[in-house]
Amino acid sequence: MRIGFIGLGVMGAPMARNLAAAGHELTVSLNRSDLPEGLAAQVVATPAEVARASEVVITMLPDTPDVERVLLGAGGVAEGIAQGALVIDMSSISPIATADFAAALREKGAGYLDAPVSGGEVGAKAASLTIMVGGPQAEFDRARPIFEALGKNITLVGEQNGAGQTCKIANQIVVALNIEAVAEALVFASKAGCDPAQVRQALLGGFASSRVLEVHGERMISRSFDPGFRIRLHQKDLGLALDSARALGVALPNTATAQQLFSACAAQGAADKDHSALVTALETLAHH
Ligand code: NAD
Known about the structure:
One of its GO terms (molecular function) is 2-hydroxy-3-oxopropionate reductase activity. This is 2-hydroxy-3-oxopropionate reductase. By secondary structure, this protein is an alpha/beta fold. The protein contains 13 helices and nine strands. The strands form two sheets. A six-stranded parallel beta sheet has the order 3-2-1-4-5-6, with helices on both faces. The protein has a three-stranded mixed beta sheet with strand order 7-8-9. The protein is elongated. Nicotinamide-adenine-dinucleotide binds near residues 7, 31, 70 and 91.
């Protein structure tokens, strides 16, 4: 397929490489950055030109305003998109704004899927991402070969646009609260005089075991806070959770607390560290 790809960062660059390796023809536009090493792609000046050259346009951008600018801004995808083309936004952004973006692209005769992912840089490189999709079944079926080149656990969550983003927010709530729980437990145990590495080892064998205890618990103990997934991106996702919950009239008390702790951690200088660095914010709350 002729695929346009916009947003060649930590996640987008390896995803684009996997699409090229699967035999797709890529067109990209860049934002003050160079073409990632080893990526075979035609480079054009604007997202509109990317859209003109492509049957499917994929975006993998940081936040909601970035996606809005690239899709609907001056020189954006909407200016160049062909009737019958498909836009797939794989960024983690607002489900509410997603419904608006989809409606604007549908007015141009294009299809739209929201398809955020979980699995991090490792999953992006290994083409083993979990992909959570919102949009019509027929568009999902059409995109399946693309998803299969990028990930393994691929789910159409709902036929309304925004369902994929809602699912990703649910994922981020579980991960954030898990990180917070592991951080609290390890700070508590070490302040009580136990070796946190031994505590983690013991817990891994029981009911408190989790991928977060395994991976992020290890990072907390070894103080390996290079991202990974940045504190500032997780802060953004918890903000999206609270915005959506407010619109729905749903209370998320522990998500709200976690969001405050992530903010405190960012304010203490860790915004671009891995989200396991949340433990450093909890340590500052403990008696020295
Ligand atoms: P990143 O900041 O590394 O990459 C974003 C890329 O978009 C950058 O290369 C930037 O130059 C580019 N960009 C921004 N505006 C652009 C424009 N107008 N035109 C062209 N390119 C533009 O971020 P990332 O870690 O790759 O994350 C991307 C999305 O995926 C985010 O929504 C994030 O929450 C989500 N996500 C990240 C991870 C992770 O582990 N890093 C995991 C799952 C989901």
